Each structure stands twice: as C-alpha cells, then as structure tokens.
Fold this protein.
Amino acid sequence: QVQLVESGGGLVQAGGSLRLSCAASETIFSINTMAWYRQAPGKQRELVAAITSGDSTNYADSVKGRFTISRDNAKNTVYLQMNSLKPEDTAVYYCEVVTYYSDYVIPDDYWGPGTQVTVSS
C-alpha cells in the first residue's frame, strides 16, 4: 500500500518561510495531479495548490504570489514553498496524489497524514 509522508512543517514567525515536502513510499505510476490542502481548526479542508502532469498549476486566491507548488516526478515528490507566511496560514497541511489510467478506470487517490504549520504573529 502506497503511503505519502509530509515533512517540513513547524512553527514560524509571520513573514517567514517554510518548504513542505511530500514523498511516496514507493513508485506511483500514472500520476496525474499532485496537490496540497489545508485544514484549520473549525474549518473545512481547502485546496491550497495543485499541479498536473503537464505542470499546470492552480492556487487558492489567498496564497497566490506567496506559495509555489512544484514536483519531482523521478522522486514521486511534491513540494510547497511557502513565503511571507501569515497567521491565517496556520493549519494542518495535507498532500494528495491522484492517478489517471484511462477514462474507464477509477483513479487511485492517496493522502498523507498531514503536517502542522503554525505561524505566530
């Protein structure tokens, strides 16, 4: 069973930076989309950023210009560079990997256990 493991979370002051990584425990074939979500206490999980196999990216409006998502296909790893962090970025951050085989095959959808990011004011 493939497992995703996030790392790089922690406590940082407002204005600081963190780089999150998410690595798969084994090779995942036919990866389509890799993404980062976050969930703050009392709030729903929300999409932060996503990147497709063609390197198209999508960001939540709240992080545009501050966060950058990237991927290393050879390492089955996705990164999230977070700059100019704000207290409202405090949340548990989760990575997701979705595969694509064909229009007739249900894709695999993997999630990591999450990593805590805390931004102090």
